[in-house]
Structure formats: structure tokens, C-alpha cells
Automatic annotation (TrEMBL):
Belongs to the NusG family. This is Transcription termination/antitermination protein NusG. PANTHER family: RHO-INTERACTING TRANSCRIPTION TERMINATION FACTOR NUSG, TRANSCRIPTION TERMINATION_ANTITERMINATION PROTEIN NUSG. Keywords: Transcription, Transcription antitermination, Transcription regulation, Transcription termination. Transmembrane segments: none annotated. The keyword Transcription applies. GO terms for biological process: DNA-templated transcription elongation; DNA-templated transcription termination; regulation of DNA-templated transcription elongation; transcription antitermination. It holds the Pfam family KOW. GO terms for cellular component: cytosol. It comes from Candidatus Shapirobacteria bacterium CG06_land_8_20_14_3_00_40_12. Participates in transcription elongation, termination and antitermination. SMART domains: KOW, NGN.
Length: 198
């Protein structure tokens, strides 16, 4: 029987940078960061906003992430993966002071926009990103591709070698063509039931 145990690691994706309510002038912007520094940038921003007294100008940040199901050591592991590595969404009112504070935060390389001017993104784009991030229906991350040769490790076809014909990322299943009585037979398997042949 495959090991169907699922472990979960949970990361925050939305951060309050200020306890103040965003004004009507507040909009969402995208800042570029060094890859892997997204959470450090959030921590630095929280400190700088207080130090600079900008609680009325910079309100919230989001690191877009998505749930993924990966196979590790024969177990399904639910993880969160950044969907836009190196980017942070920030809700703020752009003034000279707020722009400079964010722009000069360690780890930030700049704002996304036309020329040197930050370009706001629409609320509908933000709503879609939040919806995708909050969804708890993780997609499977297949450790193999179509055409890969795999060995079946569980079920009636244990120890048979087959070729992957199709992959269903949503369900974590694949179809494998197995040579059986000198005929290629399609067999549907769980990701946990196969290992990649080198």
C-alpha cells in the first residue's frame, strides 16, 4: 500500500505593516527584491515604517504563494511555494518619503513600473492573487515528465517497468504504459506507486 500520510508546512503570505486603515489614495504596487529575501524585506519594512513615522502611508504586504503537494521519501508533503519569487506586493500611498523608504529598504531592488514611476496594479489582480494563495487545494508537483521510464513499486504491477503516457497534476496520478503479455497496457497509478528509473 502507498504511504498516504501528508505532512504540512504553513507559511504566512499577508503581513500588516501598519495598524492604520488604508486611505482612499492607497493602491497596490509591486516591488522587486533579491530572490529569497522576500521575508527579510517584510521584516525590514516593518521596522523602517515605524522609524520613519510612515504608518499613514504604508499599510500591508503580500508574498504570493501557492500550495503544492510534493513526494518526499515516499510521503506526500504539502508545502507552499512562492508563485512570484523575487516580488512583494505592497499597499501604500506613494509620496517622496514613502517611495524612498521602500526603495532603500535592504533587499529591495526597485518598484515595477514604467520608467522610474511605480505603476499600481488593479484590485481585481490583488483579489485573484489572494484567492489563489488562500486556496487549500494543492496542486501536485510531479517529480517526472511524460516519456520518463519508471518502476512500479506498489500494486498488482509491482516491479514492472513502464513509460509515462500522461500526468494528472490535480489528482497526483499518472498513466503508465506497461508491457504485459507482449502488449502495451495503460495502467493508472498514484505518484507514490512509481519511482523514476535512471
Amino acid at each position: 500500500m502507498p504511504n498516504n500520510s501528508t505532512k504540512t508546512t504553513k507559511k504566512e503570505f499577508s503581513f500588516q505593516l501598519s495598524s492604520n486603515t488604508p486611505g482612499i489614495d492607497a493602491a497596490w504596487y509591486v516591488i522587486n527584491t533579491y530572490s529569497g529575501h522576500e521575508y527579510k524585506v517584510i521584516d525590514a519594512l516593518k521596522t523602517r515604517i515605524k522609524t520613519m513615522g510612515l504608518e499613514d502611508h504604508i499599510f500591508r504586504a503580500i508574498i504570493p504563494i501557492q500550495s503544492k503537494m510534493v513526494i518526499r521519501r515516499g510521503a506526500k508533503v504539502k508545502t507552499q511555494e512562492k508563485t512570484l519569487p523575487g516580488y512583494v506586493l505592497i499597499q501604500m500611498i506613494v509620496t517622496d518619503d514613502s517611495w524612498v523608504t521602500v526603495r532603500t529598504t535592504p533587499g529591495v531592488t526597485g518598484f515595477v513600473g514604467i520608467g522610474s514611476k511605480p505603476t499600481p496594479i488593479s484590485q481585481s489582480e490583488i483579489d485573484n492573487i489572494i484567492k489563489t494563495t488562500e486556496e487549500d487545494k494543492p496542486k501536485y508537483q510531479a517529480p517526472f515528465g511524460i516519456g520518463d521510464v519508471v518502476k512500479i513499486t506498489n500494486g498488482p504491477f509491482t516491479d514492472f517497468i513502464g513509460t509515462i503516457d500522461s500526468i494528472d497534476q490535480e489528482k497526483g496520478k499518472l498513466r503508465c504504459l506497461v508491457s504485459f503479455f507482449e502488449r502495451e497496457t495503460p495502467v493508472e497509478l498514484d505518484f507514490l506507486q512509481v519511482t523514476k528509473e535512471l
